[in-house]
Amino acid sequence: MQPTRPTPEAVEVLDHLRRIVRVLRESSRAAEGLLGVTGAQLFVLKALAGSPALSLNDLAARTRTHQSTVSVVVSRLVARRLVRRTQSETDGRRVELSLSPKGRSLLSRAPLAAQDALIEGIERLPRAQRKSLAAALRTLVRAMKLQDEAPAMFFEENDGKA
C-alpha cells in the first residue's frame, strides 16, 4: 500500500491527539515520580476523595470507566493500603471503597491529574459536539479494528494483576 498524502484535517487531528496524549503521559509520570502511583491510580484516589464510601459501580461511573477496568486499579490501591474495602453497614452484600488515612495523606500532596482536565473539557462541549466526537472516534476505532480492545484507564496496564 502506497502512503497517501496527508490531508490538513488529518494532520490537525493527529496534532491534537498528540497534545492530549503527551499531557496525560506527563501527568502520569509526574504522579509516579512524586507520589509513587500511576496517573490512573491518582485519578481513582481523587474520585474516592469526594465521598465517604463508594461501591465499585459508583466509582466506575465517577471515573467514566467500566467496572472491570476500575477494579484492577482499585486492587492495586488496596494492596498498597491506600484504599479500604469494607462491608456496608446497611447492606451486607455491598462492598464499599474508601480512602485509607495513608491514601488521604498521599492525596494531600497530589498534583492535578490531567484526566480531570480532559473529562472537564469533554463535559463542557455542547451535547451535539460530544455526540459528534463520540461518533467520529467510534468510527476511527472500528477503522483501526480496535473495537474489541478493552478500554483501560490511561497509562495503567490492565493485565489482571493486583
Write the layout of secondary structure elements.
Layout: H1 8-35, H2 39-49, H3 56-63, H4 67-79, E1 83-87, E2 95-99, H5 101-108, H6 114-124, H7 127-143
Antiparallel strand pairs: 1-2
Walkthrough of the structure:
This protein has one domain: Arc Repressor Mutant, subunit A. 59% of the residues lie in helices and 6% in strands. The protein has seven helices and two strands; from the N terminus they run ααααββααα. It has helices at 8-35, 39-49, 56-63, 67-79, 101-108, 114-124, 127-143; strands spanning 83-87, 95-99. It has a two-stranded antiparallel sheet. The termini are far apart.
Concise overview:
This protein has 162 residues and is mainly alpha-helical. It is built from seven helices and two strands. The mean pLDDT is 88.
Please provide the ordered H/E string of secondary-structure elements.
HHHHEEHHH
Which structural class matches the secondary elements?
mainly alpha
Q: What is the mean pLDDT?
A: 88
| Uncertain segments | none
Number of helices: 7
Widest beta sheet: strand line-up? 1-2
Cα-atom radius of gyration = 18 Å
CATH class: Mainly Alpha
Biggest pleated sheet: 2 strands, antiparallel
Helix content: 55-70%
Reported CATH architecture: Orthogonal Bundle
Jot down its keywords.
162 residues, mainly alpha, Arc Repressor Mutant, subunit A, 7 helices, 59% helix, globular
